[in-house]
Amino acid sequence: MAEEEILREESVTVVGVAEAGGPVPAAAPEKREVKVGVKEDVDDMRRRIKSLISRALMVGLNTPASTIVEDVVKKTGVVDEKWVHYTTVQVQNNISKELFARVPKSERVVFIPHCLRNAKACRAEVDEDGYHCRKCGACVIAKITAECEKRGMKWYMVGGGSQVVNIAARIKPKAIVGVACYKEIQLASDAFKGNSAPLHAVMLRKSGCVNTEVDLNELIEALDA
Ligand code: SF4
């Protein structure tokens, strides 16, 4: 089983916290390690990361993505690799944000990983279009598919990145919302490079092979972005 990566309440670790938008300190951040453990702190960190990225892109349109990630990481003081990954994905989403927003919701296609299923209870049938959720309610996919359908979005529950690439080549989506672990998001970004369909990715907050987790609010934000 692949190593699990969890992005949730108990795993927010910051070393000091620089002021959002303030100058990057020349010296290393204060070495006091602070562990915080409530959901508000996770949400607050996400908000700060997103706000710093928006500001960085506004003032430095031609700044390389890696420089923006480094700058935001310094300013927030995050040390966990998963937060660096989260920041990287948010920077990538921001770069294609305007193109993505121009595509009507009904023309966006959503790819959902099957690892979010309740593997024990799931009776979804599978074919070349992936798994067909029966909406039994035993996992979050019933809610995700309902949110997609409410917006007229086509969705696919897929077994992996290569299936995403195959389906996308066949149906030619105008914009893609993809839920995946960091590694799969980067593989998809490479695979879709040069493709006219902008990708908005939502990183799993708990990755792995089975029973993974996604923040439903973040996913809904992505559907509406
Ligand atoms: S809600 Fe859908 S994906 Fe989840 S267990 Fe039921 S049939 Fe499977």
Notes on the protein architecture:
The chain has eight helices and eight strands, in the order ββααααβββαβαβαβα. The protein has a four-stranded parallel sheet with strand order 6-3-7-8, with helices on both faces. 41% of the residues lie in helices and 16% in strands. The chain is of the alpha/beta class and 225 residues long. It folds into two domains: 9-95, no CATH class; 102-223, Rossmann fold (3-Layer(aba) Sandwich), CATH 3.40.50. The chain binds iron/sulfur cluster. Iron/sulfur cluster (SF4) binds next to helix 5.
Quick summary:
The chain contains eight helices and eight strands; from the N terminus they run ββααααβββαβαβαβα. With 225 residues, the protein is α/β, with parallel strands linked by helices.
Q: What ligands does this structure carry? A: iron/sulfur cluster
Give the CA-CA distance, first to last residue.
33 Å
Q: What overall geometry do the principal axes of the alpha carbons give? A: globular
Largest sheet: 4 strands, parallel
Q: Class by helix and strand content?
A: alpha/beta
Output the strand order for the largest sheet: 6-3-7-8
Number of strands: 8
The tally of structural domains comes to: 2
Determine the mean pLDDT.
83
Helix content: 40-55%
Q: What is the CATH class designation of the largest domain?
A: Alpha Beta
Give the SSE string: EEHHHHEEEHEHEHEH
Unreliable runs: 9-37
SS element count, helices: 8
CATH topology of the largest domain: Rossmann fold
